[in-house]
Amino acid sequence: MGTGANLPFYPEGLSLTAIDFSSGMLDRAREKAKQLDLEVEFRLMDIQNLQFANHTFDTVISSCVFCSVPDPRRGLIEIHRVLKPNGRLMMLEHVCSERPVIGPMMNLINPLIARGLGENVNRQTGKILREVGFAVDEEHLWVDIVRLFKAEPS
Asked: How high is the pLDDT of residue 83?
C-alpha cells in the first residue's frame, strides 16, 4: 500500500485490503483513506509471507513494489496462492531493460543502487511471473523499463 497514493483511483463500493511491512506507511495510508472516506482494512504484513487463506482475493494490485522485495519469487508465489483461480494481478513495475546497452548498464549499477536506496533496478519480473505460474500480458509504458503487467493464474 505504501502511503496510499493510489487510493483516489479505486472505484467506490470495493472491499479493499491493504498491506505494507511498514507501520509508518500504513499510518499515512490510513490518514489518506480517512480523507477520501474509504473503508480499507489495513494489515501490517510482508508480501513474502501473506497471512491470508488460499484463493482469498479476486484482484491483487501493486505499484513499484517488487524492486524492493528481498525475494520477489517468494512474494509472487504468495500472490499466486491467495488469488482466486480466476483472479487477476495488476502490477506497475520498473524492470531491467532488454536493450543491448541499457540492460547491462542497469545490471552494472544495480549493486550501488540496491545498497544505497534499497531497491533493485534490474529485476526480471515478467520472467518470474511466468515461472511461478502466471499467464502474463505486458505493456511497455516507458521504453521497456516501466511496464504494466496483467497476469492471471494459469
From this structure: 98
Residue 46: its pLDDT value, please?
A: 97
d(CA 62, CA 89): 8
Give the integer Cα–Cα distance in Å for 54 and 66.
21
Q: Which CATH number applies to 55-153?
A: 3.40.50.150
Query: How does strand 16-20 pair with strand 57-63?
Result: unpaired
How far is 135 from 44, CA to CA, in rounded Å? 29
Domain residues of the chain, as ranges?
1-45, 55-153
Handedness of CA 101, 104, 109, 115 (dihedral sign): positive
DSSP 8-state symbol, 11: P
CA dist 142 and 97 (Å) reads: 10
pLDDT at residue 12 tops 90? no
- Rounded Cα gap, residues 147 and 23, in angstroms: 28
- CB contact at 8 A, 134 and 153: yes
